[in-house]
TrEMBL record:
Belongs to the ABC transporter superfamily. It is a peripheral membrane protein. It is found in: Cell membrane. One of its GO terms (molecular function) is ATP binding. SMART domains: AAA. PANTHER family: ENERGY-COUPLING FACTOR TRANSPORTER ATP-BINDING PROTEIN ECFA1, HEAVY METAL TRANSPORTER. This is ABC transporter ATP-binding protein. Part of an ABC transporter complex. Responsible for energy coupling to the transport system. Probably part of an ABC transporter complex. Responsible for energy coupling to the transport system. The keyword Translocase applies. Its main location: membrane. SUPFAM superfamilies: P-loop containing nucleoside triphosphate hydrolases (SSF52540). It comes from Geoglobus acetivorans.
């Protein structure tokens, strides 16, 4: 586990991080989002000792980070850092030379494992290619390969999808999920909401040098309120608990219902549901198409719907109604 405790940091007289607290678990993907200038990259650079805090500290597996040369070498074996611009990270002429550079310098080079990493990242056959001739996406994979060759327990990634197209995004998602599958902890800064939802286990949003949101669930409305770009122009699924006051069905394109009690409640209210089978999935699909859906269900099912919605590019909101206990 990586833990940040009451971390403060300034550039000159400007406070950039102001009392940051966060936790990132091994085997999980922790997503860091926020406006430009919120302090995300500065926070990431503290996680493997690239910056030293003014106050507070960073703890890795329960041990506080120290900043002498020997301690930092050991820290960077444990925590790899993938920069936003791979040109800031690639140091050697060819792919093979670059990937072996780090492990060779710290005495952990294993050519067999490096060959396996290159194959996993789709870089087998690239060993003798000049890094300067690679595409942006290929350079990102080389930078990731160089980090993985150090066999870290954690990987920090700063805007890994910046500048990549749709095919490159799919590759980055697959790479992240493979690293998670291997048991690594990942801490990723991103402006890409859809990427965040595809890979994230925990979501933190920063603003003004502070963490203003920290949860295992996020949706478009939360992200937008916190200043995160979502580029979302589709519809919406509005969750209505079956023990509340029913909103006006005329405000919605479709009414969906889950569960016997919810169906009986709608019937008593004289409302006919449009979607009664596979209601959750069909509601999501209608919302993707731009419709506004009322989804009526029990309070206990609302958390299930929120959790499942992570797999879909849909907006989920909860109807603000006075609950009527029955």
């Amino acid at each position: 586990m990586i833990e940040v405790r009451n971390l403060w940091f300034s550039y000159g007289d400007r406070n950039v991080l102001r009392g940051i607290n966060m936790v990132a678990e091994k085997g999980e993907v922790t997503i860091l989002m926020g406006r430009n200038g919120a302090g995300k990259s500065t926070l990431l650079m503290h996680l493997n000792g690239l910056l030293k805090p003014d106050r507070g500290g960073v703890y890795v597996d329960g041990v506080k980070v120290r900043y002498d040369r020997k301690s930092l070498i050991e820290l960077r074996k444990k925590i790899g850092f993938v920069f936003q611009n791979p040109d800031d990270q690639i140091v050697a002429p060819t792919v093979w030379q670059d990937v072996v550079f780090g492990p060779e310098n710290v005495g952990v080079r294993d050519d067999g494992k490096i060959e396996s990493i290159l194959k996993k990242l789709g870089l087998d056959g690239y060993e003798n290619r000049l890094c300067s001739r690679l595409s942006g996406g290929e350079k990102k994979r080389v930078a990731i390969a160089g980090v993985l060759a150090m066999e870290p327990d954690y990987v920090v990634m700063d805007e890994p999808t910046a500048g990549v197209d749709g095919f490159g995004l799919k590759e980055i998602i697959e790479i992240v999920m493979e690293m998670k599958k291997d048991g690594r902890g990942l801490i990723i800064s991103t402006h890409d909401y859809d990427f965040a939802r595809a890979v994230g286990d925990r979501f933190l949003i920063m603003d003004g040098g502070k963490v203003i949101f920290d949860d295992v669930y996020i949706d478009h409305s939360i992200a937008e309120k916190c200043g995160v770009r979502t580029w979302y122009h589709g519809g919406e699924v509005v969750l209505v608990p079956d023990n509340s006051c029913l909103p006006d069905p005329a405000e919605f394109d479709f009414v969906a219902v889950m569960g016997k009690r919810a169906r009986e409640w709608l019937e008593r209210e004289g409302v006919e549901a449009d979607i009664t089978s596979a209601a959750m999935e069909r509601a999501f699909l209608r919302a993707i198409g731009g419709s506004r859906i009322m989804l009526v269900c029990s309070e206990s099912m609302m958390e299930v719907v929120k959790r499942e919605a992570v797999s879909y590019p849909v907006r989920i909101t909860v109807q603000k109604t006075e609950v009527v206990r029955v």
